[in-house]
Input
Amino acid sequence: MKRIILTTGGTGGHVFPALAVAEEIKNRFPECEILFLGGKGPEKEMVERAGISFKGLPAKGVLGGGLKKVFSSFWIAAALFMSLKEVACFKPDAVIGFGGYAGFCPVLAAWMLGIPTTIHEQNSVPGVTNRILGKVVKRVFASFEDRKGSFPAAKTVVVGNPVRKEIIASDVEADQKAVLVFGGSQGAAAINDAIVSGLAKLRDAGITLRHQTGKSDFEKVRKAYMDNGIDSNSVSPFIHNMGEAYAEAALVVCRAGASTVFEVAAAGKPAIFIPFPHATHDHQTGNARSLADLGAAELIPQGELGGDRLADEIIALIKDQDRLEAMGRKGLSFAKTDAASDIAEGTLDIIRMKTVRGAA
Output
């Protein structure tokens, strides 16, 4: 590989798997140039922090309507024009899309220009853009089994969700009363509010917390910690070193996006999942059940969430260290730590196929 374009946008749940694949590609091909095409959201900072060149494209979500509604959206023409220009100038060996509306036009542009394309679908229920692109790309990498036949079976490979190497289970011994709390890269108000409501119980039980709040709730949550006599330095809007945060935790309380579910499993950590109920097709509940059904996690629907309920669940699990260890082992049995490698290798295969055909 000499040049690769990665594309997606929106939340860390889309971006972090792409960065895991970028890391794998750079390890295999140190001289490979990587360009990231994304939206104009938080992905820019995440990508540039990883030392990867980034260019932003216009993108906006479209709920429902499928192909017709996507192509009738006003931003498509500008994004497709920009994508065609960037792809043609960069001349990548392949373009890999990781879902989301920001990743739609670059993959489509590459297909139009005859450049090999692949996509990765992270969720148990595919999004509209990947369902469309799945018809034209050379290969579809999936985190979960495609039970509904959303993609052509002949070119679909189940690889799991790529996880950054820093997160994969380490030898660091966790603090037996440490709990990591986060609601995704942008936070989750429902989880933040429940933790704040249960702070006194958690404090009295000796639970130590590391809490990623997202930007909007940071000051409110930090003040609640201070008011309850808890070190507010454990509260931050965003945790950059998630490998360390996972390693130090005995238990994780979080949403259930696919990236989070696979990270929790790869880190070998038990979890309490609180799925976002308004996710498309309620896919987060399906994601969470993948581990809950194995006995690797507990699932609390957001409609049943409250400070006392969450605090009681946390305290009960922390008191049962044998159960926590067993949950972590079951999570590791689910983890697919070679996902990034499998995507890099699968993409290299389609590049080789084009080279062979071109030489024939």
Notes: The first strand starts at residue 3 and ends at 7. The two ends are 20 Å apart (CA to CA). Residues 3-162+337-359 form a domain with the Rossmann fold fold (CATH 3.40.50.2000).
